Amino acid sequence: MTALTLVRGDITEQSVDAVVNAANSSLLGGGGVDGAIHRRGGPDILAECRALRAGRYGEGLPTGEAVATTAGRLPARWVIHTVGPAHTEDEDRSPLLASCYRSSLRVADELDAHAVAFPAVSAGVYGWPLDEAARIAVDTVRQTPARVAEVRFVLFDPRAYDAFAARID
Ligand code: ADP
Question: Which one of 51, 70, 88, 144 is at 20 to 30 Å from 114 when CA atoms are compared?
Answer without folding.
Answer: 51
